[in-house]
Design brief:
Helix 4 packs across helix 5. This protein has an eight-stranded mixed sheet. The protein is built from six helices and eight strands; from the N terminus they run E-E-H-H-H-E-E-E-H-E-H-E-E-H. It is an alpha+beta fold. Bound molecules: coenzyme A. Coenzyme A binds next to strand 5, helix 4 and helix 5.
Length: about 190
């Protein structure tokens, strides 16, 4: 279990899958992710079984937030495309519970993923790809310390048109400086 200030990240469980199906079929939630067709419970169960066979570092985390004395599932996140030689990995996030958007949770999750990436997985570079139209996501990643690196022109297709995919990243030395600035290492 990894803890942030208001969040924690735990392993995905089979019992989470019905919530994932609900979120992945919500047009607002899937607008900026590469899910263009309906998702069934059986699809998601198949995904879960495949996921369990991946290396542990690439198995995703369920995002939970404090809800009184309990914890509430609100999303999913994780590392993938881990390159052992370059010490590089991509991160992804989905907060499916829309009542949680624009409250700083996305920023907090990305900060925690950076801490895990650099301090637990010994990465040197953490990057992500984000649809140019995903203004909330881009803002959250900037707040977490990600820098703009470039774009994949017309890198994605949604709503009947191509859209650029922005590439953003944090290198270990930049994260360390950022943490020191925030007094987080004190
Ligand atoms: C993208 C996502 C992770 C962002 O999480 P979040 O918890 O809403 O993010 P935060 O609250 O930490 O930050 C969002 C910021 O964007 C701002 N924002 C939101 N919509 C905006 C818009 N249209 N234009 C400009 N800024 C916007 C918010 O005001 C906030 O900034 P502030 O704190 O300075 O006010 C979440 O919305 C999500 O999971 N969406 C569905 C799936 C998805 O798109 N995943 C990402 C794929 S790359």
């Amino acid at each position: 279990m990894f803890y942030g200030e208001r969040i924690r990240l735990r392993r995905d469980e089979r019992a989470d899958l019905s919530r994932f199906v609900e979120w992945l079929n919500d047009p607002d939630v899937r607008r900026f992710i590469s899910v263009n067709l309906p998702i069934s419970q059986a699809n998601e169960e198949g995904w879960f079984e495949g996921m369990l066979k991946r290396q542990p570092e690439e198995q995703p985390f369920a995002i939970e937030i404090r809800d009184g004395d309990a914890w509430r599932l609100v999303g999913n996140c994780g590392f993938f495309e881990i390159d052992r030689f370059a010490r590089s990995a991509e991160v992804g996030i989905l907060i499916g519970d829309k009542s949680c958007w624009n409250k700083g949770y996305g920023t907090e999750v990305m900060r925690l993923l950076l801490r895990i990436g650099f301090q637990s997985l010994n990465l040197n570079r953490v990057y992500l790809r984000v649809d140019k139209g995903n203004k909330g996501g881009i803002r959250a990643y900037e707040k977490a310390g990600f820098l703009h690196e470039g774009s994949f022109r017309q890198g994605t297709f949604r709503d009947g048109h191509y859209e650029d995919l922005l590439l953003m990243s944090v290198l270990r030395f930049e994260w360390h400086l950022d943490e020191e600035d925030n007094g987080a290492n004190a």
